[in-house]
Design brief:
Elements (H helix, E strand, L loop, with lengths): L2 H13 L2 E7 L5 E7 L1 E3 L2 E7 L3 H8 L2 E7 L9 E12 L2 H14 L16 E15 L7 E5 L1
Antiparallel strand pairs: 1-2, 1-5, 3-4, 4-7, 5-6, 6-7, 7-8
Amino acid sequence: MNKTQKDQIISILDDVDDMTIATIRPDGFPQATTVSYMNDGLDIYFMTLSSAQKAQNISRNNKVSLTINRAYKTWEEIEGLSMAAVASVVTDPDEQQKIGAMLMEKFPQAINYDPPENEMANIAFFHVKPVVVSLLDYKISFGHTELINV
């Protein structure tokens, strides 16, 4: 990955709020779910209930795929990411606190959805680490994709 590619990937991660993450269900079918996320450079984080299907799926198989796309009006403006990644549960309290702070910075409205203290134990924190990134940039040419190993 060169600096230009890395900068473009991080710019997309920084500017977009939601991703679609695909996990593998117990029956072997993929399940795609839209979630809000935060990032620190290339490291992606999200939170969900530990009982959520995606959390259960990741506990069985931590390989995930995801897409993140900037909003666009015409195909010539398409710019986004498609990734193969590995997801892991974050159990370290300091790292969980860091993720919570990133959540409040990116999504200040989250204060309105603060779960009661007794439900905090049901929140799962996830770290998603990209392995392979497909960088889509149709501004260069229609269908332009760069496959990048991280």
